[in-house]
Amino acid sequence: MNEASRTSGNDAATVSAAADHRLRRALGTPSLAMLTFSSVIGSGWLLSPYTVAREAGPAALLTWVIGGGATLLVCLVFIDLAFRNPMSGGNVRWPRMASGPLVGTAVSWAILLQAVFAGPSESTAVAQYLGRWLPGLLGEDTLSWEGRLFAAALLLVFCSASFFGVVFITRLNNVVTTVKLIVPAATVILLLASGFDSNNYALGGGFAPYGISSALMAVVGGGVVYAFTGINGAAVMSGEARDPRKSVPRATLIVLAGSVLLYLGLQVAMIYTPPAGLLGSGWRGMNLTSPLAQLAGLLGMGWLSAVLVADAVFSPSGSLLMGTSIKARYTYGAAQNGLLPRLFTRVSGRWGVPWAALAFNALIGAAVILSFGSWESIVSSLSFFYGLSYAVVSVAATILYRTEDGEGWLGRWATPVGAASFVVSGLILYWSGWAKMRIALPLLLVGFVIYLIRRATRSGRSNTPVLQGVWLIGWLLVLGALSAFGSFKGTGTIAAPYDSLAAGVVSAATWWLAHRSGVRYRVAEQTESSARPQVLPAQ
């Protein structure tokens, strides 16, 4: 059963996937692994270990274990979906297939926000590190206007390079990624060999000087979720893989294992190698603008400091190179779901790339850079949207397993893994804290408003009930209410750990409702599709 037959003929929420056939199916396991590594190892390795250490102290190690475990569940879900239905932009399109147009529109909106924010996060990171050599790029707390213009121009240049096709980009990326992996691995070894001091543990206040809740909040606020951004790259590009059923699982799991080991090593270095003088006011008293580079300099390795400053420009640039290509598939998928006009599903006949989606991301991304101007502010906004997209993809895996022929990659484990991934994603959203939720939730509800507007137009009318998938809105509102009264920068009326337990129970109940709702929707769609007269294509 192809994708076109899985959607109602009366439902205009899905654009024909005919353009998929123009994409180049040329990627094998090495290329998929390297492009995924390049997406993951960007600005996150340079800044996240520092921001997490400031937030949680040595409990930062727990933060990375939680983040890595959650990412494993998400990876298994993406692998299963790519195995079952390989397609580019699947992280947008699988939820639409499984749960209907309301969820499809909402997740398209959330992932579209990711797509236009991700490139700016890397280009601002490049500009911030270059500010060490070019002070004019930096203001007091953010990039100066000159720095913002530089970062925006950099984004446009890398988006332009992506127009030359996925084969060209992956060949260039293979060289870039090799360098990107060697430098951070060598950094861990050299920092630990030169400055390991176990006294930092007690000097900073013990394992969790700011409480376990700080370690949980750092999963989102410290950039851990963001640091694994792009781990789904192989699955998102599965429509351009030669043999996605073999190459996507291999590439994804190789990258996950390597990334977790690397981030844990960097976090150990950030906890145990800072000189004691930096911890006089505790972990939150550290103030480093180029953390790893400055740390190397303080330990007497000026040459390594210079290498890290150079790599701080090189690594995010490499992620920007692949990220612009991958995130264009997000926008392409959002257009396939009908959130954007058909224009953005157009694929270049010569290069086999979604050129309109690339151009859209570049222009909106430049506007994001000019508006925000700092890495942390952009990343903080991004992480919440990633948590939401992981949740709806997780429930899609359980629905499609139940309603499609074939075992898939996870087989009978699809349901428990998908359910667990959904609950963990819900906890990640909750742990982001009320300060972020109160901003992100109204922005996400814009997707619901878009859906209602489209349903009110002739082009958006459908036989699907208008509130099919409303569980998503209810779930977000309940999580938001818990957050307002919880211990994660809420009023504290609901004390820890009872607030997290409540968020987990609510998410588990929501998964059950979402799964049942999606199964009913899919059965109704399949029944209608089988009853509809088949129209043969014109010869």
What key phrases describe this protein's structure?
539 residues, mainly alpha, disordered C terminus
Q: Can you summarize this structure?
A:
This protein is an all-alpha fold.
Poorly predicted ranges (pLDDT <50, ≥5 residues)? 1-17, 535-539
What oligomeric state do these chains adopt?
A: single chain
Largest sheet: none
Task: Give the number of helices.
Answer: 20
**Class by alpha and beta content:** mainly alpha
Gross geometry: globular
The termini sit apart by 22 Å
- The residue-averaged pLDDT reads 81
Write the element-wise H/E pattern from the N-terminal end onward: HHHHHHHHHHHHHHHHHHHH
Tell me what the structure shows.
The chain has 539 residues and is mainly alpha-helical. The chain has helices spanning 29-40, 44-56, 60-84, 90-99, 101-130, 145-161, 166-195, 200-203, 212-221, 224-227, 233-236, 244-272, 291-298, 302-336, 355-372, 375-403, 414-431, 434-455, 471-485, 498-531. Helix 4 (90-99) runs parallel beside helix 14, helix 7 (166-195) packs antiparallel against helix 14 (302-336) and helix 14 (302-336) packs across helix 15 (355-372). It starts with 28 loop residues before the first helix and ends in an 8-residue tail after the last helix. The relative contact order is 0.18.
Outline the secondary-structure elements.
Elements: H1 29-40, H2 44-56, H3 60-84, H4 90-99, H5 101-130, H6 145-161, H7 166-195, H8 200-203, H9 212-221, H10 224-227, H11 233-236, H12 244-272, H13 291-298, H14 302-336, H15 355-372, H16 375-403, H17 414-431, H18 434-455, H19 471-485, H20 498-531
